[in-house]
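Usage

Read records sequentially. Each one opens with the input sequence:
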Amino acid sequence: MTQLPTKKEQTRARILDAASQSFRSSGYAGTGVDGIAKAAGVTSGAFYAHFGSKDGAFDAALATGMDEVIESIPNFQTEFGEDWVVAFADYYLGEAHRNDLACGCAMTTLSPEVARADPEVHMAYEAKMNRIVGLIADGLGGDSDEVRRARAWAMLSTLIGGLTLSRAVANPDIANGIAAAARTAALAASEV
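and closes with the structure output:
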């Protein structure tokens, strides 16, 4: 029998969701504790009781966002079989995902924030990215783990870069062109 979350757990989840959406859409510098608390429907005191600081909320939001990717890759692999890379690239670079900063991929929106963070955040991020690359590599053909991992890094880097660039331009036609080019490159990188 599944136990329902306590009120405290529900409150923490609401704060974490609000923090995650805020960090993804506004960046670390553009996100404030009061704004997170307001979006979660709690006081700033409740925020601090659950996360201790803005950094604590960022760390939790980053981990949660990376875990979302870790959970989604095996789902794509199971649901789409041999065509999972195509389905993943189509989703990742698709217009709906491109236009949803607040709920979009943490790898794209939070990686620049990690680059400016302290070494502990870098290490946690690196561990999650290595896990993501391992999952991708497991879904690629090839003779050696080293080759599959290299192709996984190339594919993932292309998708993240393509999504970042397509979000940064104002012209939707240029955004679509960037996404299409990145899709082609990511699929090529994933092939044997």
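Summary fields computed downstream for this record:
- The chain has one domain: 55-190.
- The radius of gyration is 18 Å.
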